[in-house]
Design goal:
The complex is a heterodimer of chains A (about 300) and B (about 350). With about 300 residues, chain A is α/β, with parallel strands linked by helices. Chain A has 15 helices and five strands. The model of chain B has no long low-confidence stretch (mean pLDDT about 90). Classes of the chains: A alpha/beta (about 300), B alpha/beta (about 350).
Chain lengths: ~300, ~350
């Protein structure tokens, strides 16, 4: 099965819950803002899958590589690394047929029209609300010692909706607060309706969540080989077994990855997952990493594999 | 209406100690490139006089003086569009250069503030500084206003401007000191990107002129259109404002936090704007005053009463404002709501 076949079989409504059926009523223009804060991990796959599918339904897609945001959020990406990380993200999006949708905040935010619009918009943005909307999105949330750049981070993210004239945005649940609270604010200004689609966070190998800015041991990087993915999954499954937790990472992949394969194998993996022992780990990790590798085939073809 | 030109008189300007001191400091520093930034927001009032005179003096002393008209700052603080700001910029530029005869170089803030290099410097600095550290530098012109996002950008940009304009000296009103103090915080913040550190390592001299006052003798920051004298005053509103002017007579103490507004207006808005003597009714009949210091002495001795001084002030300001209004034709002031500009005083 190829990536194209996969997209054909993908049911967006199964992956993402929304107020309306996205396949019946796709967004006119959807924005995905991605801050290049580190190596891309498998948590990005649902996004590229959904965006590819929505394009087939006629949606205009904008992938905004928010290179400034990577720096503004407590300098997760140092200025010197922004360019190389941006390239890495561009390569990834190109691999998944989204290369023509890519724009960069570095280019957009320095346009006169953007600066005029954003500076004017900042006149309307109460800083306290920005802090609340951002919630846990920003690293400064931890000590509440907000940096001046935090306001720009949230403010520009909200203004992008107006500037790029989009009607929907897609984001991780960690960023969803910004949209959840701010959309009604901008609806009052523009008198337009906006929607946001959010995707739950993928659990990390060690930590509760997997983030691009994390250490590589906590994430499955898209450029990793099947062997390495298998190895990390085993670590993860062992950790869950030890903690007597259900392996959420694999359950989350169930919706997105498993429909690729025959129902019989899927049901065997799932039935083992609910009550697995040390002996099942090899079987589960092998099957899941095989499936992931197929989804990562475009990366293998277009990017350097580590 | 008068037809004779009314323009700053350099000899009288240099007799103002506060201005002379700054000009001398600039001369001693041997720095030649000076600047003063202004956000072109509202109709101009006479509170700008001290700054305009200072600039005229700097230009006269051989400085190359630049005035950035901070359109983006005005946009942020007042939500104005570029079109609205273009009218205001033209109006400020025309008033300062053609009416007040300050031959400065004018640039729009947006000319350099929209460059990628500027934005990257700005973001680089913003990521280094916490809100808690600089909260007291945020613009406080509207005290009841909640803390809006623009305020964090506003002050930092003001500091950054000094380094993006080719200048050696920044002159500003004393109230701006707290904003420019931020430069210290920025320079000390770590880790500061090397290109910002290099840019901001340039030694710039910051010189401040005391804050101007309104007709009640209070600092301008506490003023409103009702307590400032606009260059768009009508005869009646001008007369009314001068009648209300705070002018303690000889022997009476000045209230704390205030100055004798009447004397301030003579100092900055009358004497330096003419080469002629000023006629004032005194106890001894009409006297001709060639300089402010003699006038002030006689006022303090009680030779000139506040009422007689107010009559003379009205005559002089009416002459000057009429001249200004003659020079500012409708094409440049059409956007001004005159009733609002004069505080709907009548």
């Amino acid at each position: 099965m190829s990536w194209d076949d996969f997209i054909s079989h993908l049911n967006v409504n199964n992956v993402i819950h929304n107020l309306h059926n996205l396949e019946d009523k796709p967004p006119k223009c959807i924005l995905w803002g991605i801050a290049p804060t580190g190596d891309i991990h498998i948590g990005y796959l649902p996004y590229v899958g959904i965006l590819n599918k929505l394009r087939r339904f006629g949606s205009n897609v904008i992938c905004l590589i928010a290179n400034y945001h990577a720096y503004l959020d407590s300098k997760k990406t140092d200025w010197e690394k922004i360019e190389s990380r941006t390239k890495h993200y561009k390569d990834f999006l190109r691999a998944y047929n989204l290369g023509d949708t890519v724009i960069e905040s570095k280019d957009e935010y320095t346009r006169k029209s953007y600066i005029e619009g954003f500076f004017k918009f900042s006149y309307l943005l109460p800083a306290k609300d920005l802090e609340e909307w951002a919630g846990r999105t920003l690293r400064s949330y931890l000590n509440k010692n907000y940096k001046l750049s935090d306001y720009i981070y949230v403010g520009t993210q909200i203004f992008d909706i107006i500037y790029f004239n989009i009607d929907s945005s897609i984001c991780g649940i960690d960023e969803s607060g910004i949209y959840r609270f701010s959309l009604s604010f901008i609806e009052n200004i523009t008198k337009k309706r906006y929607y946001y689609l959010y995707i739950p966070m993928i659990p990390g190998i060690y930590k509760d969540e997997m983030h691009a800015s994390d250490d590589s041991s906590n994430k499955i990087i898209v450029t990793e080989r099947e062997k390495e993915i298998n190895h990390k999954l085993k670590i993860y499954l062992k950790k869950c077994l030890k903690k007597k937790e259900l392996p959420k990472l694999v359950f989350m992949l169930e919706k997105f990855v498993f429909p690729l394969f025959d129902k019989e194998t899927n049901s065997e993996i799932l039935s083992r997952l609910y009550d697995y022992t040390e002996d099942d780990i090899e079987f589960i990790s092998k099957n899941v990493s095989q499936r992931l590798s197929i989804l990562l085939e475009p990366v293998r073809q277009h990017m350097e594999v580590i | 209406m008068t037809s004779g030109e009314i323009a700053p008189n350099i000899n009288r300007i240099l007799k103002i100690p506060e201005i002379n001191l700054i000009v001398e400091k600039v001369k001693m520093s041997r720095k030649k490139k000076t600047m003063w930034g202004v956000a072109p927001i509202a109709p101009i009032h006479l509170g700008y006089d001290s700054l305009i005179l200072l600039q005229r003096a700097l230009i006269d002393s051989g400085c190359h003086h630049t005035i950035p008209l901070s359109d983006i700052h005005a946009m942020m603080s007042h939500g104005l569009s570029f079109d609205e700001l273009e009218w205001r910029c033209n109006y400020y530029q025309y008033y300062i250069s053609n009416v007040c005869k300050c031959k400065a170089t004018f640039i729009r803030g947006s000319y350099f503030q929209t460059r990628p290099g500027y934005i990257e410097d700005l973001y680089g600095i913003l990521a280094n500084i916490t809100v808690a550290k600089v909260r007291d530098t945020f613009p406080t012109s509207r005290k009841s206003e909640p803390f809006f996002a623009y305020k964090v950008i506003y002050s930092i940009m003001q500091c950054l401007d000094a380094y993006h304009i080719d200048t050696d000296v920044v002159v500003a009103e004393e109230g701006q000191k707290k904003i420019y103090r931020l430069i210290n915080i920025i320079q000390k913040s770590k880790p500061l990107r090397s290109w910002i550190r290099d840019r901001m390592s340039k030694e710039i001299l910051f010189l401040y002129i005391p804050t101007s006052h309104d007709i009640l003798g209070q600092p301008l920051i506490m003023s409103s259109a009702r307590t400032r004298i606009s260059i768009h005053e009508a005869e009646k509103s001008l007369s009314k404002k001068i009648r209300k002017m705070y002018a303690p007579p000889h022997g009476q103490e000045i209230n704390e936090g205030r100055v004798n507004a009447l004397l301030e207006y003579f100092k900055y808005s009358v004497f330096p704007w003419t080469k002629d003597s000023i006629t004032v009714k005194t106890k001894n009949g009409y006297e001709e005053y060639e300089d402010f210091s003699t006038f002030k002495e006689d006022y303090h001795k009680g030779i000139i009463s506040p009422q007689d001084a107010k009559d003379a002030l009205y005559k002089e300001l009416h002459k000057r404002i009429s001249y200004i209004q003659d020079k500012l034709n409708e094409g440049i002031t059409f956007w001004i709501d005159r009733q609002k500009a004069i505080g709907d005083a009548l």
